[in-house]
Amino acid sequence: MSQFTKRKHVFKEVHEEYVLPDERNRIAKVLAANLGNNLHRVQLDGGEVFLASMPKKFRNNIYIKKDDFVLITPIAEGDKVKGEIATILLKPQIRYIAEQNLWLVSWWID
């Protein structure tokens, strides 16, 4: 698969798929983006702050910045890095999750 085709599929996945959080995924807010080695500082709604890694499929294809929201899959064996980014949540996806009553969007200001 060429780099362009891969980028097209990743872009389509992020922009068109509406993923709902389940028992293994949690929503987190990005506090600091790209701290090196594709690590991002994130905060859960309970206030817990830790590092999350960016999977290889998103690297150099999708960029996140401070105050973005992501879906995190926890990593049990991590000390500092306690999660991996499962998907990046955009505004329409945040609205969809809020409409499903799965997330009270208290952090997000339109």
UniProtKB/TrEMBL annotation:
Keywords: Initiation factor, Protein biosynthesis, RNA-binding. Belongs to the EIF1AD family. It comes from the Eukaryota. SMART domains: eIF1a. This is Probable RNA-binding protein EIF1AD. Residues 5-85 form the S1-like domain. SUPFAM superfamilies: Nucleic acid-binding proteins. It comes from Helobdella robusta (Californian leech). PROSITE patterns: S1_IF1_TYPE. InterPro entries: EIF1AD, NA-bd_OB-fold, RNA-binding_domain_S1_IF1, TIF_eIF-1A. One of its GO terms (molecular function) is translation initiation factor activity.
